[in-house]
Amino acid sequence: MIEYPKATDFQKAIFIGTWGHSSIPIYDVPTMHSLNQLVGYVKHINAGNGTVLYRGQCSLYEKVVPSIKHDLFTEEDNRVRLETAMDAILAEAPLSKYLGLKNADVSGWNLFQKLVIEAVLQHYGATTYCVDFVDNHWTALWFGLYKWDKINSCYLLRNNSGCGEGGAHIIMSDRMRKKVFPPEPTFELTELSNIKLEELREHARHAPISFGELVRRNKTKKFETDHEAWRRACTRISNYNDNIDHMEKNDHLFLFLYVADTNVSNFRGVYMGEKTYTIDLRKALPSTFLRPCSQHGWVVRGKDVSYDFDSQISCVIRVNIDLAKEMLGSGTLLSQENFFPDETIDQGYNILLERQKGSRLKSKFEKVIPSEMITDFGVGK
Fold first, then answer.
1. Using one digit for the tens of pLDDT, what is the confidence trace for 350-380?
2. Angle at 71 between CA 68 and CA 77, to 5 degrees
């Protein structure tokens, strides 16, 4: 049973609501400390449930679904295309050997072989039934901070538009809704209590000041006190509402904390769960496939193609774009050059491109991968 974070103070992280119609909480983190503590807390409360993996996104979509289900009208065509490619790769002896699928301990184990092939295709851009995750939240932050540009075939750094983009499907909590200003006190509506009026009547019997004058003076004093209290309340509400406006107008990225079913038997990084296959790509693939090593890459595939990935998400973390930029900085480990090394560096990527139909790379190998299945960044063009 997945545990949701329930505490309210993670180094000032703010519970802002839930994701869509689910019970999955969403937290806004104002600092790197609140991010780190919240991540650590989710790991702690789910320590007995599996491995917490991360997925960074630019927008909060309605659900987390595999790419093959993004367009249900083309799912069947893509399924056939995928299965044809996997069969062809497995039948191509040099490539399947390169993937480590000809070793004696997995030779003939069709399920394992197909899972590894689908996982590597997914990680290099194919449309599959898998979803990408990482086990490093810095990497996940990067994928939420950089957006894929199809025209230029590269990831571009997002800028804060001031329009609050990407925040759909958040059901805000009451504490995140704007407060209404109280009505302004008026002298005419200011009233003294019956006890106070009796005191003033008694005082008027022994003083040269009339009862009416005493009431006027006390009413004036109470009105001034009430008005000052009203002004302070309005200031607090205004600051509160401005803070909500500021949070909502800024653009954000979103981290999904997914609890993978890894408390099960596994072989070479392939975990055979009750409802999922979870694959640590660095264990399942030789390190000549450099991209998974750079990204700390994992993939998860549902045994049932209608598997609900949302059921294993413990929480969603919302991070302001500008804060994410501050936290990641400009180190080369957090760059497209590192996360997506080109085919002259990533030998596994080169091997796949060489076998893709229509590839710009010339090779003597049979073209067993359909055209445009593997994302071609075109570095060597």
1. 999 999 999 989 888 889 999 999 998 864 4
2. 65
Q: Are strands 154-157 and 14-19 parallel, antiparallel or unpaired?
A: unpaired
Q: What value, to the nearest 5°, has the Cα angle with vertex 369 and ends 365 and 370?
A: 130
Query: Can you count the helices (H) and strands (E) in the chain?
Result: 12, 13
CB-CB contact of 57 with 46 (8 Å): no
Closest by CA to 36, choosing from 47, 48, 46, 27, is 27
Give just the sign of the alpha carbon dihedral 327, 332, 333, 335.
Answer: positive
Please tell me the distance from the alpha carbon of residue 290 to that of residue 34, in angstroms, as a whole number: 32
Q: How many Cβ atoms are within 10 Å of 380's Cβ, its own excluded?
A: 12
Nearest-angstrom CA–CA distance, 357 and 23: 45
Residue 100 near residue 106, CB atoms below 8 Å: yes
Full-model pTM: 0.83
Q: How far apart are CA 349 and CA 347, in angstroms?
A: 5
What 179-186 contacts at long range (C-beta under 8 Å, 24+ apart), as own/partner pairs, is 179/237, 179/240, 179/241, 180/237, 181/233, 181/234, 181/237, 181/238, 182/230, 182/233, 182/234, 184/227, 184/230, 185/223, 185/226, 185/227, 185/230, 186/223
* Total residues belonging to the chain: 381
User: 4-31 burial string, b = 16+ CB within 10 Å, else e?
Assistant: bbeeeebeebbbbbbbbeeebbbbbbee
Question: What is the Cα Rg of the chain in Å?
Answer: 30
Strand 313-320 and strand 25-29: the pairing is parallel
Cα gap 37→343, rounded to integer Å: 38
Task: Report pLDDT digits (tens) over 87-132.
Answer: 999 999 999 999 999 988 998 899 999 999 999 999 999 999 999 9
Q: What ranges make up the beta strands (E) of the chain?
A: 14-19, 25-29, 51-57, 130-134, 146-149, 154-157, 170-172, 252-260, 266-267, 270-272, 276-280, 297-302, 313-320
Task: Give me 192's structure tokens.
Answer: 């003294």
Cα→Cα distances 226→192, 203, 217, 233, Å: 12, 24, 14, 10
